[in-house]
């Protein structure tokens, strides 16, 4: 492959690539609100067909999957590219510097909802395929594409889709571009994800709100019930006290631990980027906690009055929502059962509701195919990529490693400060173009894999 010709082609077609990306960004596709999903799937299908990809929309029990194929030879190496076309709700609108579905470029960055997560990275994958075809002339491998419309609501139906279409989805490797790059701006190769369990706790007091003086010390306060329950679950150092919570965790191998020690860490810079200048931990602790340990996070609480001024009541209800990031081999269903048992012991009148889950997943860093992809990324960026055994967040990676039994690699194409899920989500134009280039390099390198 002529790498200079490839780079020249990408620069020559830069505006066309941006124009097509902007068309996709203008199409709303908010999965949690079922807003524009069918329209976006149809738009994406048309774009893929324009690239010569045999494409179809496949219905699921929820939102449709856009599936495509470029089959060279059934015996050739087959790469399955995964992404998602759905996006998060844009609210609050008044926090955006420009309308979320009217993409703009400012200071070298594209601003729009979904540009980093995941439409920009998805299109970089597609344009990488086009760039390879137009500069080399023929693909050396087969490529299959799975773009789902429910990732932002937990990929509810992806596992069932994969189970139903196992034969169609047979491949040798799954390649995903999602999430942010490393905060040092170095290219990043991720070999796994943390899983997640989302749950809700509801506590009840009296049948209605009560005067906090007339019934204080008389009527129970459900907010305190939940606060006290949380204290039985987690100590001040963050250690989860639920029996058996840590039992199934698979530790990193010696090689994976070695990879963690090679990751750069700038405490001051990272603290500023995440909006927490008081960050005080060292690099090894940071990476271990982010990738190798579960979390126990409260993401929302609701009870009583929180408006302006005061309202002296004893609330009648309290609700707390939590997400728990899990590591290999913790099972969300097992953890949920352990939490239910704990609540029965310490607060049996509190109702616990399962909201959703995702299994953790990890691909062995020692696999030869992993080393091939690392080599391709190195050639694309002309620098050694950072290798991380797992990302801190969650993706439905387990459907590939667990259901299909395939190795799976994630190479993010977005900048670290992409603000995904937040107002002013963005994607650096150079990162977008580098992603196109990287996809082409991965295709070329995998061409010698069978």
What would a concise description of this structure say?
GO terms for molecular function: metal ion binding; peptidase activity. By secondary structure, the chain is an alpha+beta fold.
Structure description:
The mean pLDDT is 97. The chain is 35% helix and 20% strand. It has two domains: 3-193 and 361-446, Zn peptidases (Aminopeptidase), CATH 3.40.630; 195-249 and 293-358, Alpha-Beta Plaits, CATH 3.30.70. α1 (3-12) crosses α4, α1 (3-12) runs antiparallel to α13 (429-446) and α2 packs antiparallel against α4 (115-136). It has 450 residues and is of the alpha+beta class. The longest helix has 22 residues, at 115-136. The chain is built from 13 helices and 19 strands. The strands form six sheets. A six-stranded mixed beta sheet has the order 1-2-6-3-7-18, with helices on one face. It is globular. It has helices at 3-12, 14-26, 37-50, 115-136, 158-164, 222-233, 254-261, 267-273, 283-292, 332-346, 368-381, 398-403, 429-446, and strands at 54-58, 65-70, 78-84, 104-106, 109-111, 142-148, 173-176, 188-190, 192-193, 195-204, 210-211, 297-303, 313-314, 317-326, 351-358, 361-362, 386-388, 408-410, 426-428. GO terms for molecular function: metal ion binding; peptidase activity. InterPro entries: Cyt/Met_Dipeptidase (IPR051458), Peptidase_M20 (IPR002933), Peptidase_M20_dimer (IPR011650). This is Deacylase. It comes from Terribacillus saccharophilus. Residues 193-349 form the Peptidase M20 dimerisation domain.
């Amino acid at each position: 492959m002529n790498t200079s010709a490839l780079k020249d082609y990408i620069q020559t077609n830069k505006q066309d690539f941006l124009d097509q990306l902007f068309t996709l960004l203008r199409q709303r596709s908010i999965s949690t609100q079922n807003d524009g999903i069918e329209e976006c799937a149809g738009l994406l299908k048309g774009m893929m067909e324009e690239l010569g990809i045999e494409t179809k929309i496949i219905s699921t029990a929820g939102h449709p999957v856009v599936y495509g194929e470029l089959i060279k030879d059934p015996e050739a190496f087959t790469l399955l590219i995964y992404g998602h076309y759905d996006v998060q709700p844009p609210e609050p609108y008044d926090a955006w510097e420009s309308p979320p579905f009217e993409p703009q470029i400012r200071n070298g960055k594209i601003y729009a909802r979904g540009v980093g997560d995941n439409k920009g990275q998805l299109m970089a994958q597609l344009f990488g395929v086009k760039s390879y075809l137009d500069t080399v002339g023929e693909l050396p491998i087969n490529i299959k594409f799975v773009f789902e419309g429910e990732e932002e609501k937990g990929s509810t139906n992806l596992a069932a889709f994969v189970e139903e279409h196992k034969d169609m989805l047979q491949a040798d490797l799954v390649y995903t571009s999602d999430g942010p790059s490393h905060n040092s701006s170095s290219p990043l190769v991720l070999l796994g994800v943390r899983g997640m369990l989302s749950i809700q706790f509801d506590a009840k007091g009296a049948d209605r709100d009560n005067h906090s003086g007339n019934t204080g010390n008389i009527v129970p306060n459900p907010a305190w019930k939940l606060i006290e329950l949380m204290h039985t679950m987690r100590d001040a150092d963050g250690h989860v006290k639920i029996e058996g919570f840590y039992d199934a965790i698979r530790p990193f191998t010696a090689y994976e631990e070695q990879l963690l020690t090679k990751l750069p860490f700038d405490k001051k810079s990272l603290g500023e980027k995440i909006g927490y200048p008081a960050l005080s931990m060292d690099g090894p602790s940071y990476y271990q906690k982010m990738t190798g340990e579960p979390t126990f996070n409260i993401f929302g609480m609701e009870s009583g009055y929180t408006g302006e001024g005061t309202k002296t009541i004893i609330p009648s209800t309290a609700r707390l929502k939590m997400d728990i990031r899990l590591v290999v081999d913790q099972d969300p269903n097992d953890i949920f059962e352990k939490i239910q048992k704990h609540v029965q012991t310490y607060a049996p009148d509190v109702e616990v509701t399962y909201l959703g889950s995702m299994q953790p997943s990890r691909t062995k860093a020692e696999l030869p195919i992993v080393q091939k992809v690392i080599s391709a990324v190195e050639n694309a960026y002309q620098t050694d990529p950072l290798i991380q055994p797992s990302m801190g967040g969650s993706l439905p990676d387990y459907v590939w490693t667990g259901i299909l039994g395939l190795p799976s690699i994630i190479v993010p194409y977005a900048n670290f400060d992409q603000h995904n899920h937040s107002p002013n989500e963005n994607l650096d134009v150079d990162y977008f173009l580098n992603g196109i280039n990287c996809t082409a390099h991965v295709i070329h390198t995998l061409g010698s894999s069978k």
